[in-house]
Every structure is written in C-alpha cells, then in structure tokens.
Amino acid sequence: MSQKIVFAATGGPEVLKLENVEIGRPGPGEVHLRHSAIGVNFIDTYQRSGLYPLPLPSGLGSEAAGVVLAVGEGVDWLRAGDRVAYAGGPLGAYSSERLIAAEHLLKLPAGIADETAACAMLQGMTVEYLVQRTFPVQPGQTVLWHAAAGGVGQIALQWLSAMGVQVIATVGSAAKGEIARRLGAAHVINYSEEDVAARVREITGGKGVPVVFDSVGKSTFEASLDSLSPRGMMVTFGNASGPVPAVSPLELTKRGSLFLTRPKLGDYIASRAELEASSAALFRRLEDGTIKLAPSHRYPLAEAAQAHRDLEARKTTGSVILLP
C-alpha cells in the first residue's frame, strides 16, 4: 500500500488530498520504486492551479529519489536495492511508492545523498540546459538571474561563479540578498526596492547584459527586456508572478534586435542520451563540490498543501522536499 497525493479539481493548495493506493507488480520495462525524498517545484503549483492544464484526477510531482524494490521484465541494468533518482516522466512523485518506467531513472553515485538528489535533479538539469545549451554562457560574461535565492537560482549562482561568470542577482529581500552574495553573486539587486533595469545599466556601464534568465514572469518581464544589450537573449522559464504579457516582435526590434525564448526541460532531455549527459554534468559538480546543495525546507508528504502555500507565498529559499 502506498500513500499518494492526488487532486480531482484545480485550485488552491487545499485541493491536494492524501490517499492510500495499491501498488501492483512492475510490468515490462517498469520498476517498483520506494521514495526516500521528493522534490517540490514551482511547476507543481502551476499544474495544481490549472495554469498548466492536466487531465483530472491526477497525481503530482515529477522529481524524487529512492530505492528500487523490484524490476519488471526487460529491465536488466537495475536491480532491487539500487539507489536511483529521476526528474520527468509521468506525474506521481508525491507518493511513498510508485511504478515508473525504468527509462526515466538514473543511478545515483554513492557520494550524492537522496535528499540532495531529490532537490537537485529537476533544478540542476534546468540550470545545465539553460547555461550550457539555451545560451552557452562564457567565462568573463555578465548575466542577469532573477529570483537568485530560489532553488534554481542557488544552483545557478554556484555553477556560473565556478565558470568565472559575473552574475547580477535579483532578490526580494535583504535576507535573500545575503544568500545570493554567499553563493557567488557579483552584484545583488532587491527588485522590491530598486529599478532593476537602471541598476543593470549602471553596473554594466550602460551596455546591458547579453542574457537574462527569468523565472519570475509577469512582474519582471519588462525590466528584463530593458536590461539586455543589443542582440541579447531573454530566457523566460517560469511564471512565479504570473504569465508574461503578449509581446509584439517589433518590441524586440526596438530594444536592439533581441531574442526571446521560452524553453522547458523536457525538450532538452527528450532522448536517453541527452538525459544521461545532462545528469552527468550535474553529478560531476555535486561530487566535486562545485555545487553544495541540501534542502532548505522539509515537509511530511501529508503536508504537501502547506509546502505549496509556503512556496507560493515566497516564504521559502532554496529547495523544498517532501518526506514519505
């Protein structure tokens, strides 16, 4: 018997319910997995609220770490007792146990703890594809990263600073600013008190930055565009403050022939080879200490709704996990 968070209607965190479900035997290509730690991400709140529509009723969660209990026919590279993690595949990570296709799983190196993996997979591979493939950032460049004290932001700050990249980090409070500085931000802007674009121009001597990474969305979109240098790239990859407004292509022209993209992780780990390459890049940085990561907030699985409330209210910094 497994415990699982489900929701039958979209809405606030109160729609999340804990249910007991039977777990059958794994079918061909499947694995019976017992979760030890489960990642909580902003995309989960978008799916729960209906911003990203799902067929209902539905489970939730796309990231976790755990131990293999049994394998189905044809799974010859995993066995009971193996430690694994994943980010992606069918929703359902908010559960104590589940069946999942083996193709989504990655063996965990011995030096990476389950809790670290549960909060690193989705966010860490997101950083990998953003800074190495969406816009391949080069040493010596200066970039703007919004919500830098959040889970993705904290990984990005460490990753980029280790590359010799100057990061202008935006945060919503003085306390979050201290976190950003500690993790390697060269400059910190409190967007609740300062004009972001004006400060970016001041820091860069009027030039602007070649790329902006923005997961905040609606409230920072205009400032992000105004912070870019000619032919710069605006990478919008989240909607924490709501969806960005419609934009005319002519606005990109007027601001200096800008590029605008809205990528998602699934398109960058669509093949097994891409998944393995992205996770390997992340695992190397976790193992060599380039990225130091542990969950900042832990909630019992039964308190998933409270985790969502705190995440949406910006009460959390860093990564959030559920413990079955």
From TrEMBL:
Residues 11-322 form the Enoyl reductase (ER) domain. SMART domains: PKS_ER (SM00829). One of its GO terms (molecular function) is mRNA 3'-UTR AU-rich region binding. GO terms for cellular component: cytosol. Keywords: NADP, Oxidoreductase. Pfam families: ADH_N (PF08240), ADH_zinc_N (PF00107). PROSITE patterns: QOR_ZETA_CRYSTAL. InterPro entries: ADH-like_C, ADH-like_N, ER, GroES-like_sf, NAD(P)-bd_dom_sf, QOR-like, Quin_OxRdtase/zeta-crystal_CS. This is Quinone oxidoreductase. It comes from Chromobacterium sinusclupearum.
